[in-house]
Specification:
- The structure is a single chain.
- By secondary structure, this protein is mainly β.
- It contains 1 helix and 32 strands.
- The protein has one domain: TolB, C-terminal domain (Neuraminidase).
- Strands 1, 18, 20, 21, 22 and 23 form a 6-stranded antiparallel sheet that branches.
- The two termini are 18 Å apart.
Length: 477
Amino acid sequence: MSATRRQILGRTGALGASIAFTGSIQELFAGTATADTPDGAPPSGHGGYGPLVPDPDGLLDLPKGFRYRVLSREGDALRSGEGKVPSHCDGMAAFPGRASDRSSGREARTHLVRNHENRKDAAIRVPAVKGLTYDPMGMGGCTALALDSANRVLSERVAIAGTAVNCAGGPTPWHTWLTCEETEDRAGTNGYTKDHGFIFEVDPYDPRRTGAVPLTAMGRFQHEAIAVDPRSGVVYETEDAFEKPFGLFYRFLPRKPLGGTGSLRAGGKLQALRVPGVPDLSTVQEPGTSFSGVEWVTVPDPLATETPIRFQDFGPGGITHAQKLEGCYWGGTSVYFVSSFAKSADGSAADHFGQIWRYDPQRHRLTLVIVFGPDTDLQLPGDSPDNITLAPSGGLMVCEDGEGAQHVFGLTRRGEVYPMARNRQALTSAATAAGGTEDKPEWGEFAGVTFAPDRRTMYVNCYTPGTTFAITGPWQH
């Protein structure tokens, strides 16, 4: 998940026939590996790889020339023998293999770390494994897969267990995964024996190196995603609070910046963004609006021992909130983060259908890059986009999370949208499960889209039933 998270294009229907937005798509690629691509378009007259071909096996429709391999499926036995593949496959990242890493005589070329966003009602929990379990009553966590050059699974095992609602996260420059709990449940709630709402570091190569240690200094709140400044080691964090007051945008100043695996345990200082005179980012509606001299205010109680952080007293200037703070990634010299939508009916100060913000730490400047327009809610089939990643063609791949059939869509640097994959796995509806008549199929959303380090394979999860796919084909590089 090199560029993540939920509803990056906001509830816009932006993946239909056209995208209504104001701002600069080019800005999203500034300083990334795709920035020098001439036009960012795959080899097709319509900006894509052609129409989707129905899959005779009823799993995944892809363009002609592309093929998939099912790597792992919910309910199957984990290859480690630790139990079953858990439910709710969500955020994910791919890491390069190491020369010394071999299994059964075959070298592991790619390592995947996969979140499982399990709440207390999850059908299949992440198995509790000694030395890797934080709270025995937590159902969530991560699993790790090692793949060879042909995307054959060499190993599959629990990477961390006993956590809760592992939704998103992000990779570090030293090739570990920071998995984030999207909950604020305390010990004693839902049967939990420990407080939840933390970030945990996961080593994709040897999970026992990192264990199940909460990075408490990074705050206890409804975490969504993170991005690391590769120059300074500062970690940026988004908060997806479900009710007013909404979430904050944070930065964590580590005591041991860029110190490698385990270094974040040394602690540091957690701060929240304050834009003077702007208590709610939803009120900013004009792309290009820029604020210089933004402030970072130290969080009074990062552990939220008595009061959730977003309710805490940040002094006379207050603090800046935003609804649905989700995606977060580093590009060039700045961090980009997303407010996927804002609704005055929910308590936001104004309405919008998606904002993308850029913060430049060198200039202490916050800029609104793109705003998505409400009229696009009518332009289906695409709606409610979710995870994103940079594509080999120089554009983005976006996971859809909405009603009906679910897609992975491509977005070129020219703003063209094309279908890349369609999930054919219709789930049994609630009515059918109850013995009634099926009124409409339910579909599992896509999540965790990411590319192999060599950019030749796209990996993506189906959230329900939890399935991880490897997709290969004539990617345009």
